[in-house]
Design a protein that fits this description.
278 residues; 33% strand; Rossmann fold; 7 helices; methyltransferase; Immunoglobulin-like; seven-stranded mixed sheet; globular; alpha/beta; SAM-dependent methyltransferase; five-stranded mixed sheet; S-adenosyl-L-methionine; single chain; methyltransferase activity
Amino acid sequence: MKYALLDSGNLQKLEQVGEYRLIRPALNAFWRPALPRREWEAADAVFTRDSSGGGRWSFNRKMPESWTAEWGGFTLKIKPTGFGHLGFFAEQYRNWDFFRSAASGLGEGARALNLFGYSGIGSMAMAETGAAVCHLDASRGMIEWGQENLKFNPQVPPAIRWIADDVNKFTQRELRRGNSYHLIALDPPTFGRGSSGQVWKIEDDLPKLLGVCNRLREPGRPFTVILSCHSPGFSCLVLERLLEEACGRGGRFESFEMTIPESTGRELPAGVSVRYTV
């Protein structure tokens, strides 16, 4: 069964995630829900945030620990986490489509790097059309989740190298090794910790990381960076300025607000994304 955003409003969203209907926070859904209350009352589970930054799930029926759902052309492992996540970010579907077309357009020998790669869906999109992909995430658990997702999608070539490491340590090591890439994707968190406890703060670390990414490009070949973000204060224009500072003004920028289409015909905003191509 597929994923679908059914409705949103009152700071919540109602989602059909495969077989199960869930309610999760949507902190920018200031409007009223469009569907009748009975549709919301039929939810199988509800996630409620608490002051710690986490939250708790309340289940209205017995549910498995994990299951699968289809979205963006892939079969995905779904597993509710203590932070209210499910293992994928539905708003990224447009970027997955772009990864497919960009990797295909690079031709033979294309190399892609997916930083903060999470559960590997973007990496699968890159590999699906021929790129050799390096997938990086600081969490070994997410690396294993991504490998499970790959098993659910036999149409994707196993051309993904899975690495659990700190993003700054890894990219600096790639520079020293003389490695280069033609397509780099980043979806950085506001705050995080690396594989050995290194602290990541987006306002301090993202500008430096983008500079390193620019140095990882192969001279004389097309180069694309896709940067997406959910952090307050990081608008499309802010991301463009950071990419321009790191990569120069010679490229082409495409910016947009990421959204999830709703069954009601509306769309739920969920972060921003900028693509830089040269």
